Amino acid sequence: MTDKTPKNIRPLNRFITTHDEAGKAIFSSTLPETMPVQKIGDGADFSLAYTTSEFPAQLSDETDVTNYQSYLSSPPGIVVSGGTVCRIVDMQPGATSPMHRTVSLDYGVVLEGEVELVLDSGEVRLLKRGDVAVQRGTNHAWRNVTPDVLVDGVGVPQWARMMYVLQPSSEILVEGKPLKEVVDGIGVRSST
Fold this sequence. Notes:
Blueprint: E1 17-19, E2 25-27, E3 38-40, E4 44-52, H1 63-73, E5 84-91, E6 104-112, E7 114-119, E8 124-128, E9 132-136, E10 140-144, E11 149-151, E12 154-156, E13 160-168, E14 172-174, E15 177-179
Antiparallel strand pairs: 1-2, 3-4, 4-5, 5-13, 6-9, 6-13, 7-8, 7-10, 11-12, 14-15
Protein name: Cupin type-2 domain-containing protein
Pfam families: Cupin_2 (PF07883)
InterPro entries: Cupin_2, OryJ/VirC-like, RmlC-like_jellyroll, RmlC_Cupin_sf
């Protein structure tokens, strides 16, 4: 399954902007800039970069920042009904997520490494740094296939990093039958 390779990608920061009393753009000091990491099973770490609880987002009076702050102490489900989720996922070398489906439209971007998108039909696509997957409510898994890097003649396994932006979708129907969310085993609650 996975190994215990030390994490060889850097910690991430998230910079939230806001306004001062005069309406000038400033950086918010409400939250630390370093993103907290939630360790989950199957060789992955999740970082909740940002989330909103409604769409369009309510930016006045720091409403969205306050809501996000509450999600940091009590993480949301995989998708937030009526809102958006921006999540960073770090995958250990060789890790494969469980097969899962969300009732959402997701954009997955490879930030570091190489990751395979595996569909329940058996189809697979290799995503390299900068590649984007548009995930439309299909049953899928992710597999870190990043090649080892030679260090002093020795192959060192590499972590992979992806960014996902998830937004809820309406019910997904195939031949008139609804497809339901399947998130068992991925270490995150069902959608909220």
